[in-house]
Amino acid sequence: MRRKRLGSALFALLVCLIVIVGFARGWFRLSSSEDSLRNELNVNLTLDRGKFQGDAERAVDKTQNAASQLSDSIKRGASLGDRAGEKAAPAHP
């Protein structure tokens, strides 16, 4: 039971985080209009798919570039470490 509550709380937190980020990034917009003749208030939530997809593509590109740079630096570090280890090893007669 406790695990189920924790899962529900984490899910609610994730949804709140997505909503907050979505409004901050401009993915979502709220608009309202009032119809005084019918005594109604209409509230609309709009999702800007183009902005969302553009942000997602930029995030993928940045992640791929960062992973590539990290991989290159690890490879360079490993090859430099191998060379440094060879030079630094003391010679025994």
List the helices and strands and how they pair.
Layout: H1 2-25, E1 28-35, E2 40-47, H2 49-88
Antiparallel strand pairs: 1-2
Write up this protein.
The protein has two helices and two strands; from the N terminus they run αββα. It is α+β, with helices and mostly antiparallel strands. The protein has a two-stranded antiparallel ribbon.
Structure summary:
This protein has about 90 residues and is α+β, with helices and mostly antiparallel strands.
Strand order of the largest sheet: 1-2
Radius of gyration: 27 Å
For the largest beta-sheet, the strand count, sense and barrel status come to: 2 strands, antiparallel
Strand content: 15-25%
Identify the notable features of this structure and list them briefly:
two-stranded antiparallel ribbon, 93 residues, 2 strands
